[in-house]
Design the sequence.
């Protein structure tokens, strides 16, 4: 189970580090072509989502790697599940049901990280 957790956690961490980083660093105009929903969400909230994604990425890797509070990895993965539930909700409310494929994959992967992380405890 440990190898499976590290594979899932590394993939999720890489994705969320990138996705969160661009939400933190780029302007609304730069984000708009790839994330049309940024027009309907205030930019401070977009920046908060990005920050939570980066923290979630760190939470998946650092606690189990250092052995300090490894339960935080399960908490981080749970937070990423909730972020994807929010993303799916936003897309559905905007009539973008066809756009939720990536959200569903990320939701399932984060849920797998919760399960694998909990099994490691």
Sequence:
């Amino acid at each position: 189970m440990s190898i499976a957790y590290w594979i899932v956690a590394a993939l999720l961490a890489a994705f969320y580090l990138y996705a969160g980083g661009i939400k933190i660093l780029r302007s609304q105009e730069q984000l708009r072509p790839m994330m049309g929903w940024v027009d309907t969400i205030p930019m401070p909230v977009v920046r908060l989502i990005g920050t939570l994604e980066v923290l979630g990425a760190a939470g998946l890797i650092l606690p189990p790697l250092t052995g300090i509070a490894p339960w935080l990895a399960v908490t981080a993965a749970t937070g990423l599940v909730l972020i994807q539930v929010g993303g799916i909700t936003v897309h559905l409310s905007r009539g973008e049901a066809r756009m939720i494929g990536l959200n569903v994959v990320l939701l399932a992967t984060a849920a797998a990280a919760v399960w694998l992380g909990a099994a490691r405890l």
In short: Residues 8 and 90 are 25 Å apart (CA to CA). The mean pLDDT is 96.
